[in-house]
Amino acid sequence: MDIVKKKQKVLYSYQARDIDKIFSRLQEFPRDYNLLYQLPTGGGKTVIFSEIVRRYITSTKKKVVVLTHRIELCNQTSNMLTEFDVKNKIINSTVKKLEDQHEYMCFVAMVETLNNRLNDDQLEIDNVGMVIIDEAHYNSFRKLFKFFDKCFILGVTATPLSSNMKLPMKDNYQELIVGDTISSLIHQNFLAKPVTYTYDVGLGSLKIGMNGDYTVKSSEDLYTNALMQDKLLKAYEERSKGKKTLIFNNGINTSVQVYDTFHRAGYQIRHLDNTNSKQERADILSWFKTTDNAILTSVSILTTGFDEPTVESIILNRATKSLTLYFQMIGRGSRILPDKPEFSIIDMGNNIARFGLWSGDIDWQSIFRSPDFYYDNLVSDDEIERNFRYVMPDEIRKEFSKSDNIDFNVEEEYAKTKKYGLRSKSVLEKSIEQHATMCTENSEDVFDARILSKLLDQDIEYRVRRYSYCISKSTKNYRDWLQEDYGRKLRSKINKMFM
After folding, report:
1. Angle (deg, nearest 10), helices 476-497 and 426-441
2. pLDDT tens for residues 146-183?
């Protein structure tokens, strides 16, 4: 057993470097200093702070408290500390007093449990010199700072951006130390290389909630509809088929619908959300781990405290305004294995257009210092959608094989109306004429042509949106009316062409 322990954790050069940086602050500010440390998911944050705990206890003979926000993280952290020969005790709901605290130099606790015990004066931990906060971007930890105001506090996170934009992290931490970047860790073969695919999704129907992110209800309305479910299934079959896949959703109903869609298509899939029992969760995760090509659809429950290196594909079947959630979801697929040098990212929520590539450069110091500036300069959904380009899928293009030209440049036609003093609506009339021609020249009769016209819904939606941008009237209600009117006129035009 001792031999196995000695072989386990070896610090990488970037980990050792960052530990030295943190200890330099400890030497300069041994008390009453709050330091924040950033390192990407998969970089080994738990390894780093476990070594810090071991070294700190050895050098100062003071105790350390490690705080987490989920029971799974408590257990994982305790196990890692044990691997570093740090004898520790978990303070969970069953621990009411610490009569044996003299036997331990390190305690691991969930924030709510420890807060309750300290507020009720049920326990007191003496001789604490350092507090480490895992996943420090969560605001629940703030309530405990008052109990450790004479301690060195080290917050650790992959994303130093508060989960509540009204409570910036700079208010609680004096300094941020930034670790290696994702691109650097990929280059050094510590993280798998991402292969990214994006699918344009119109998000005009989504609403923003009190927390600054899209509401579950508006997300469910969009992502449970048949078109989006079909788009998701096709995206999986094009880019992820045969890979162990995690699908993230915003809402239980969406995840259940995803399960039904994939199950009917004959794929091995399970659904997991926070209503599953502890045993059900364990059974599902065990199945996922041991099943080739398994698909697991969930509702953000696996963003932290879940580590399954065999995941080969991540599908973001949702949109989010949270940079932290964006990094957490994708990070679940970034673990590298000898036979897994890369993993797939499929974005069904315009998230990459909003935040940039997961492995792209990001100025964490700037975000830490000026989070408001960061939020204010996020690319809007409207701006993202202005850059959409509709490409007719191959299976639809085959239905219009007799048509040489299927393209229509709305902006170019609109420019002609301005140049020659024509009505702006003539743009849509020309577009309808072209669509009607495509339907009639690929059909035997009016009935076939009208069936074909239904395949043009996405192209029509795209052209109408481009037109609405041209005339600076891009409200959703107006676009919906234009689209319905377009459909009526297209059917009428087809009827006339067969007379």
Report:
1. 50
2. 888 889 999 999 999 987 777 889 999 999 999 999 99
**pTM of this prediction?**
0.85
Edge-to-edge order in the sheet of strand 269-272: 193-198, 342-347, 313-316, 245-248, 295-298, 269-272
Give yes or no for a contact between 215 and 206, defined as CB atoms under 8 angstroms apart.
yes
**How far is C-alpha 443 from the chain's CA centre?**
44
Express each pLDDT in 307-360 by its tens digit.
Answer: 789 999 999 999 999 999 999 999 999 999 999 999 999 999 999 999 999 999
Element (H, E) at 281: helix 278-290
Tokens of 395: 């299976």
Q: Which residues contact 430 (CB under 8 A, 6 or more apart)?
A: 408, 413
Backbone angles phi, psi at 484, to 5 degrees: -65, -45
Closest CA to 325 of 232, 167, 213: 213
* Dihedral, 293, 295, 301, 303 alpha carbons, nearest 10: 50
| Residue 346 parent element (H or E) | strand 342-347
Question: CA nearest 136: which of 182, 101, 175?
Answer: 175
Question: What whole-number distance in Å separates Cα of residue 444 and Cα of residue 184?
Answer: 59
Contact assessment for residue 166 and residue 138, using Cβ atoms and an 8 Å cutoff:
no
Considering only CA atoms, give the Rg of the chain: 27
What does DSSP assign to residue 144?
G
